[in-house]
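Q: Focus on the shape:
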Amino acid sequence: MPAPIRLRELIRTIRTARTQAEEREMIQKECAAIRSSFREEDNTYRCRNVAKLLYMHMLGYPAHFGQLECLKLIASQKFTDKRIGYLGAMLLLDERQDVHLLMTNCIKNDLNHSTQYVQGLALCTLGCMGSSEMCRDLAGEVEKLLKTSNSYLRKKAALCAVHVIRKVPELMEMFLPATKNLLNEKNHGVLHTSVVLLTEMCERSPDMLAHFRKNEKLVPQLVRILKNLIMSGYSPEHDVSGISDPFLQVRILRLLRILGRNDDDSSEAMNDILAQVATNTETSKNVGNAILYETVLTIMDIKSESGLRVLAINILGRFLLNNDKNIRYVALTSLLKTVQTDHNAVQRHRSTIVDCLKDLDVSIKRRAMELSFALVNGNNIRGMMKELLYFLDSCEPEFKADCASGIFLAAEKYAPSKRWHIDTIMRVLTTAGSYVRDDAVPNLIQLITNSVEMHAYTVQRLYKAILGDYSQQPLVQVAAWCIGEYGDLLVSGQCEEEEPIQVTEDEVLDILESVLISNMSTSVTRGYALTAIMKLSTRFTCTVNRIKKVVSIYGSSIDVELQQRAVEYNALFKKYDHMRSALLERMPVMEKVTTNGPTEIVQTNGETEPAPLETKPPPSGPQPTSQANDLLDLLGGNDITPVIPTAPTSKPASAGGELLDLLGDINLTGAPSAAPAPASVPQISQPPFLLDGLSSQPLFNDIATGIPSITAYSKNGLKIEFTFERSNTNPSVTVITIQASNSTELDMTDFVFQAAVPKTFQLQLLSPSSSIVPAFNTGTITQVIKVLNPQKQQLRMRIKLTYNHKGSAMQDLAEVNNFPPQSWQ
């Protein structure tokens, strides 16, 4: 058989191919020749054929049929064969293939070889693709080579030990004695690999980290090496752009960062050397910037002095002026991480950070925007908002939503005045209205509603903002709401903050009708506009007939939502005109349901849950907390699950307040005899109570299915009746509707109903329909109780009633044990 072509000739031939198909044909032809040579056990050219096969593998062609030939080359006594064999094993084999186990014995023999270069090949291969089984078998040989005096072998053995530790962490202690003298080595290669090994051991084992901190005194050794690197003169072997061995410096700084984290003594020992590195490193080259960046990360991660931290932030500030985009991005990212702990130091670079908003690179823009919002406070709110609004005006569409949300949050937190706050939000809606998030509209409406003195100014500004431009839908929605709510102020020209404009009722209606028929208006916007027109029927006097016509037209709209609104408004005009003014009266001041502050959120094991909402007491009744405590004191026993009382409906209902957790293990403040429910209380796997209604079937069975009602209390003219329903989606849930009636000649006011059940149940009280029980049985108060009874036990309940009657406060307790079996079985 003729001698196969050399590797160089194969490369030259393949490079002459003009098309991919021609190259594939050449490769297939050569692979066929190599297979034939392998079948004939041609030892002479095996090394050459495997080398060609590795080149084809690098080009992306299959070369798996050469795996066993690599093992044969490894077993050869010739160094050239071993070199190609080990290279092939690293490229073609991995631990997922059982073939690699066949080479364990060869590697063991070569680790004990008399030639250091053969030992080096074996160490490289084991460190590259050794499996956990191979690492266990060969760890002893690696540890022996780690103690040798040969620098060439020690550096390779250190890297191989890193791979062994990653694969088999329990072998870490085997290498501990060998690490004692590694840092005394003069050879930089050994020092570098030793630091890598020590870093791996410290990261993987807290015990090793503590050992190196206390027993080995590792920090002083690293400080000494780093100081020698900084102070040493020119060394051609290690010099990179005028800096002595920057790779080793970076590795040492990373290891110092691990050792100094959360450790005062270690941090104190490295403060001086970190200051020297920060001040003596040349910044004109990228190499110096890399070392400075690692120094900054180390300073920020350890317990460093405040002056050193300021120095680190100033280094990042210099990075922001660098022409390299990557360095600027790294600086912004690092400043964003440190702004919470060193806010004042970062504030000094505010102007440079704001300049980065004008950068052409979108990644730098985003980081600069995030950092700018983190720097906003009460002192710089006006200047920062001016810059961020300018950025919002000119930035790419993908930034507008995040930028608008950030401005909303910052303005809400730091607004110097209500007028400035409203102006800022309106500027955002005018600039990027189509990009704001869904909650922007209700939040701004709430802000406007609560700023009573700004109503005339706001409605005038919004009216002028939407004249002839309906492209920003959130702005149009807010404007429509405000015009409907405060249209009378707009027409009367009562604005004192700026020069009032003269607007007639017809002009206002023209604008709203234009919104209704505009092609740019969404269904939601049209709904806002129609409702605004309807509200104006009670605020305007001369255009009521025109409003009736507009409303009647949309009674046959193809938009179902709009049609429903129009039909209901028509009914108001025709059947319930006497109620129209009361139904459409001005909205009261809204209470904010949730805030961004920490008061509403309780952190529990990394999860956020809504904190129990406090309930306001009736105007003249006793405090709810004391009521609940009295109730629990009288109930007695450890089997009672306390329930938070629900406030009367005179208080605006808090969204989500009725969907609190089932209150089964909440311990009311100061209740001495009520034990909290233990951890064994059954948990609900599906969404509790009201969320059960998301299924297509009816939420509750009809009352007429046979559960009789009961009289739970009848005394002093007050009668409490319970009616029952069972949930279709969760049979363990019983819904009890209480009806309180009053047969006396005077109303019962400030009525509060409370209840408690044994700990095997879970109970939720929803808000009552009123706090006043009318006299002469002319009306009732209704309130819903939801009881979860997963164990289907007989239901028992104790109730407490508090109310004012005939000028005196009344209070009574009762026990209800006569629940019908159908309500709990």
User: Anything to note?
Assistant: The chain is about 50% helix and 10% strand.
